[in-house]
Specification:
With about 130 residues, the protein is of the alpha+beta class. It has 4 helices and 6 strands; from the N terminus they run βαββαβββαα. It has 2 domains: about 45 residues, no CATH class; about 70 residues, no CATH class.
């Protein structure tokens, strides 16, 4: 869980931020003009990978580390993670081009998204 902190110089922005945090289900403490707050993990609207679009964006971004549900083969070795360099599409199939290794081929982006362990990634990156 990530804790945020903000010091305001005026009460109006502080009150506005308190209202916004409350509306989003956040927990906060105010000390003078400083507010410390966080959002519980159970607040699903703040998950990093809760939609298909967010997952595809994550897969496409160079430098991201992705964790697969089951290990994939690369040159005789088994790997469960890949560092994204890009994507390769061929005849409707898709794979991740990685730094040092590539993923297996998947029939579609949907199949590739399903192969990644989003629960584990959410836990690690939240």
């Amino acid at each position: 869980m990530k804790v945020f902190s903000k010091t305001h110089t005026n009460k109006d922005p502080l009150q506005k931020q308190i209202k916004t945090i409350s509306e989003r289900g956040g927990i906060y403490e105010v000390h003078g003009m400083t507010i410390k707050y966080y959002f519980p993990i159970s607040v699903s609207s703040y998950l990093k990978y809760d939609t298909f679009e967010k997952r595809v964006k994550t897969i496409k971004k160079e430098g991201n580390i992705l964790t697969f549900k089951k290990p994939f083969n690369w040159m005789g070795a088994q790997y469960s993670q890949i560092l994204v360099k890009g994507l390769e599409k061929r005849k409707g199939s898709i794979k991740i081009i990685g730094f040092g290794r590539d993923s297996e081929w998947y029939k579609s982006m949907e199949e590739l998204v399903k192969a990644i362990d989003w629960d584990k990634m959410e836990e690690w990156h939240s």
